[in-house]
Amino acid sequence: MPTYIALSTFTDQGIRNVKDTTKRAAAVKELAKKFGTNMSQIYWTMGHYDLVTIIEAEDEQAALTFAMAVGSAGNIRTHTLRAFNAEEMSAVLDKMP
User: Fold this and answer.
1) What are the chain's domains?
2) Highest taxon of the source (predicted)?
């Protein structure tokens, strides 16, 4: 399954309700299953981003649908990156001339 790394920041709403962040994360992890995705890891971070999550999805549409559903709750803004493991990267490199 394709892997995605989501870098997220709290919105004003999200930081106002920050005491619920671990409860929201558990609910989002369950929600992921409904979209054919798996939020395998979540980290609360210091610095430019407040959260970093690792998500596996059946395909791009599943990843996008999940991201939009999470974003529509209004607690975070997310930048999502497609990540490639070593095996996937080797396959890409093998196609190069």
Assistant:
1) 3-94 (3.30.70.920)
2) Bacteria
